[in-house]
Amino acid sequence: MIAIVAVPKSFCETPKKPSSDHRPRKKRHRIGSSGIVPYKRRARKPIDHAKEGRIMTANKTGRITGTEMEEAISRFERDCRSDGVGETVRSFIREPLFIWMDALAQASDESVSHSEGEFHAECGLDRNMIMRTTVGINRMLSIRDVFLISAIVDERYADRDFLMSFAERPKLSRNAQRLEQLLSDSFRDPLARPDMKRCNQAINMLFDIIDMIPKTYRAQPFAVISYIMWWMGQEGAMASAISALAIDDQCSLAAIVCSAVERRIGPAWTSET
């Protein structure tokens, strides 16, 4: 689990059984005494504002149904039992993660000029890739976390081989230590400004994923959006976190973002602006 207050820790462990972070709850969430209420009742405008003008990044051919998601999850879990978790994660996630990272790299390449609204289809997530990504980030926190890390940490420091290794083996000592160091360095360094184009592209893609999937699977994508926005110093972080908590009131990543925003805690670079 991610820790963003003070020193960012290695934040992912793959639970033996699905945790509350993997099982969306219907119970509505209210945080502390601050009176924060679910997205449906308060935060619609901030989220709509966050989505306004964003570029389509997915090749949409119809929304993914709940039945399709259940079948994909069953297949993923069956493969984990028969082939092992590591092999299943690699075969299931490698392609969508690399397409995702190609899109992030394309967005951050300042030498490439794109007209407004233009996006190269070869870097878009198609329906199958969206479904596989959604299964992964909902069933294993390590998968969710590599998608998050790939957005906020430059690929020179968190390359694809490392991210895949972490997704497969998050408890491996060298993986956990390296991730903790990456986050700690980025969090503490006032000169470590995030790549805004890269982060915005990740947010674009996550919003498109959210638009394609059933509501019960949207908490984790919203939580990742909230964390990226918090890392960028954007006001939409709280609204996105509340959106996640409105779906799953036990989504700890979203709750942590809410706490950090309320306490005015952020990466060191935000205090220098």
UniProtKB/TrEMBL annotation:
Residues 13-33 are annotated as: Disordered. This is DUF4192 domain-containing protein. It comes from Bifidobacterium pseudocatenulatum.
